[in-house]
Amino acid sequence: MLDDAATAQPRASGEAGEAVLSVEGLTTLFGVTDGAIHAVNDVSFSLRPGELLGVVGESGSGKSVTMMSLLRLIPSPPARITAGRVMFEGRDLLALSPAELRAVRGPGVGFVFQDPMTSLNPVFTVGFQIIEPLREHMGLSKKAARARAAELLAVVGIPSPDKRLDDYPHQFSGGMRQRVMIAIALACEPKVLIADEPTTALDVTIQAQILELVKDLRRRLGMAVVWITHDLGVVAGIADRVMVMYGGQVVENAEVGALFENPAHPYTRALMETLPSVEGARREKLRTIEGQPPIMTRRPAACPFAPRCAQAHDRCLAANPPLLQVAPGHASACWLAEGAA
Amino acid sequence: MSLAEPTTRSAADTAAPLVQVDDLAVHFPVYSGLFRRQVGAIKAVDGVSFTVRRGETLGLVGESGCGKSTTGRAVLRLYAPTRGRILFEGKDIATLGEGALRRLRPRMQMIFQDPQASLNPRMTVGSIIAEPLDEHLRLSQAQRRDRVRSLLDAVGMNPAFADRYPHEFSGGQRQRIGIARALALDPGFIVCDEPIAALDVSIQAQVVNLLEELQARLGLTYLFISHDLSMVRHIATHVAVMYLGGVVELAPRDLLYASPRHPYTQALLSAVPAPDPKVEATRRRVILKGDVPSPANPPSGCRFRTRCPIAEARCAAEVPAFRKLPDGRQVACHFAQ
Question: So which residues are the signal peptide here (chain B) (predicted)?
């Protein structure tokens, strides 16, 4: 069945240019006892069919909350999505009823969570957990769903898949469980796959296996992918386009080559300079970014990076810069980018 | 005793081995059945040998479950070794009694991975840092306070923070407190067990730079345990790569990263993503098949043979010797040249 999808690839290229998912002005707050945390501030981006968008940021930068807000997967309260539109197939996901949204999750947009240890249900077999969405969303019979589930396990590279369907999550290793999570997300052949730090908990050799798998699946199924990570190395290897987040907002958005060759935002630049690598020349001393990432207790009136920025000036403290174009398809939320393009 | 003045160590000392580990093994018994009889053992560490010279940093790398943390703890005798020798300043501490070991403790300290879990939330920062002083030294109140202040200052924190509690600090600052505690007794040797793994990328560099500064200033020797090969390349002078309880390759840093010889080291290094799309596009990646075998039941012969791309019949029959190559590195592989 998955091989059919390979021939159905025109889905990817046929409607190129037209965004499969577009997000405008998304804002999410968390209510806390003494006010609100502005976790996501006015985030906009779009995803083309077949594109892999890497979303990079440190903990608390808002990258996970953004993606979970898209599908309204965050518990509300405490979270409140206060503004924005999420357009998918001509409909605003934020305006859908719970039942309509449920029909989108799975066949429309699949989600892979970070921790494969806690996101699989330990009391059901892995087979049951893959079969459930197939029956629910694809309307397959019990028998057909089981056959398809075995196919999916084979696709993600789990040996003797038919036998493993009857095993429970604890009988799988961490890397295998993450593969199972991906198999579940792929079960309904989503147009968009959102993966939230899917390899962060895994060892590098297992991560390499998963990254190869995703590259291969993307080639064969032509789906668009949002890949959330804090690892610039992972992004360099698999992304087409990268969105860098800091303090709940997008600070830079560029094609992967342009981002690494010509990082425009001081945060992106600093981040790249703090990173050691196993390749290339070895740096004698690592550059550091002094200070701490911010906790957004107020709606930012200034640039969130200004307190740690070596190039900050008066204007950065007076007004929060919008995303400004530095080159075609390359934007940076920094006043220094003004007039650069 | 004061942190302000650098510890003077003679030039002759520099190359002398501070820690020498010889055929170290740590096995954890597995009990089962009605009478809880021992039915087997998890061979977490099985035949590890390495040397750390004064003032150097040995990076101990490997994936989860390879035994790197167990090795680090056994070297400090936080676990009792099943077999092997641990020479610290020339003296075997593998079988040392409690009293003698306690007298040695101030010379060897540890920095833990999770600064959240390794600092007592009910103690102030000052009393956390002073605890080793209270245990091992007799200081007056004033001396104790001065020492705590100079330690906080040495790790780049405001000495006035001594009266605060750990929860008031960020992850990076908590790790600094852990470092100050490890420095309290002026140790010569510190085992750093994944000291930056729990920190954000922009904070990791701060802590690593601090560790390097302290090393230069105080003449410290580190055993730096990490799964982050890029960071180990930055901080270590020598690197030991572990797999399933054993060291498969041990080499000076530049040699290891430039030309890894063991097939596992090659696969491991090729799997680390490089933060550069051009490098990534041209890199040849060795993808290992399958998962790490259980250390309760390791494969016969070479421990890596079940996933090794170049394994032959010989690898199942014969345990490869940990031999020295002409360039000075040590490798446990029949085919390494």
Answer: none
